[in-house]
Amino acid sequence: MGIGSTSAAAADSPDESRQQRGSLSWLTNRELPHYPSAGRRYFYLAVVIAASIVLWYQYYVPTAVAPLLLRQFHLSFHHYVYIIVGSNVAGVVAALFGGFTDRLGRTWVVIGGLLVVALIQLVAIPNTTTSAPFIVAVVAVGLFEGIILVATPALVRDFTPQLGRASAMGFWTLGPVAGVLVASVLGSHTIGATSADWQREFIISGIAGLAVFVVAVLFLRELSPRIRDQVMHTERDRALVELQARGLDVESATRHPWRQMLKADVILSALAISVMLIIFYTASGFFTVYFDTVFHHGTTYFTLPQANGIDTWMWAVDCVGLIVFGLLSDLVRVRKPFMVVGGVGAMVMMVLLISHTGHPTSSYYTMVWVAAGVFLFTAMAYATWMASYTETVEARNPALVATGLAVWGGMLRLTVAVSLLILPVMVSSASKVVDNQQYQQFVPKALAIEHQYGPLIAIVQKNPALFQTLSSYASPSDIPPALVAKGIAASGGGKEGLANLLKINGIKPELAFLQKYQTHLLALQQGADASPAEWQHWFWVCFGGIAVFIPLVFVMKGRWDPRRAREDEREHEAHVAAELERLRGTGTPS
What we know:
Blueprint: H1 14-21, H2 25-28, E1 31-32, H3 38-64, H4 66-72, H5 77-97, H6 101-104, H7 107-124, H8 131-158, H9 165-172, H10 174-190, H11 197-219, E2 222-223, H12 225-228, H13 238-245, H14 250-253, H15 257-261, H16 264-276, H17 278-294, E3 296-297, E4 300-301, H18 304-332, H19 336-356, H20 364-396, H21 401-426, H22 429-435, H23 443-462, H24 464-471, H25 481-490, H26 494-506, H27 508-552, H28 562-586
Parallel strand pairs: 1-2
Antiparallel strand pairs: 3-4
Helix pairs in contact: 3-7, 3-8, 3-10, 3-11, 5-8, 5-21, 7-8, 7-11, 8-9, 8-21, 9-18, 9-20, 10-18, 16-20, 16-21, 16-27, 17-18, 17-27, 18-20, 19-20, 19-27, 22-27, 23-27, 25-26
């Protein structure tokens, strides 16, 4: 049943035809009067997904260069976290405004956001020399990203019948995952040792954003309100949707949007995924710090490249899972079993992650499969949740999908902001490690000195003031006899004390090195010692978020049994056929 069979019934009005013939109509008129063919629809979806990926990539560039930014703008780890919290709070406000795209349209929001964020990344941030403008720029990116967080999945929903919704949403949810993966991979290949490298990362992301902006401004379109404000179960519904569109009262359908969407099933569903995704935002923002500081077996640490390598495996598996489980969900026609299995599997893998945190037998590849397992199961739950959530919102009112997504986007950003405020308190070791990360290079030398001269260092540490005074003399012969006697006594007394004192005098450069970096190295060591237990406590919070998610699956729309879902599909097809026959016979929409 093709769209051509109803072209006469759904033909453009004279005003629409004249508008489309205008010289700039290809640029200004974004609405499609007909539901597009499969090829065009997939192209529009590809543009939306590309926009989502590049925007999330730009959002995560600060994470990829965080150590350089901290040094450049003299920020502590806590201050940096507060900046990210501010960006998320801006995203909360913006996401709520994203609901207005139900009335104003989606495409110009996406196109405008792409341009503004690209210019911020390309021009504003690289030319920032003080912290205040940098903070404003980062918060501005969060503001625009919050709006687009609502507009892009709304476009995906508009162009996707319910039967293909999970696979389409699986591709859309690639945005945040592929975004952080791109930022990590590009950063690992382009970040060097100079302080200017942080600017290069923003410039690259800005150029990428401008490229996608050009594609979007030339080609991205959206459905007219009368078409998108209906539920489309399968692609075979196109003819009925277009016939019914002629009689749809858009103004009435979109009246009192928040009153219609602030319902228990919509709110609880949004809460469910928001708390489940605490682990995602923890990983995307802090897993490099986690892997780099928690796993220290004797004098062996996961190096920063190894930490990034685990991240790469983890996000790659997540990307594959989003697509595969979305396709499987569409194939068997159900969402809820995937959400429950994904939630339970993620909880099991979270327990393994907790047990392996800081464990001396937790090798590189052990952590690869544990971390990847967590996000394989969360991908199963998330891709199918996105499909089920839009269907839950459609059941309330298909004309207010963006408003329903705004409820989710605002709640998600608020949850992230609150969790980011709590995380540094529960994982205080992260601040000690990150704030002193630049001194990590001195740890091997300090450990070697302590290993070789441990007994002598212990003597000095028992009497720091005395040995500080002794070290101030250029030559042992210049030291007063009474002070020498005190030094010998403090070093063990007798011949042994004299021998130790001479040895201590011989390692003055090594002692000076330890004294210079002692405070920073001690903070690093304290952070490393406390880190495993603190991260375990935080992961139990993430575990609790997933546990909350599972029972709230039951408030969402959709079948559990694939057989019942197929029966619903057959009944719907029969209804569509009968309704089409009736409308064509009467010549009027219902």
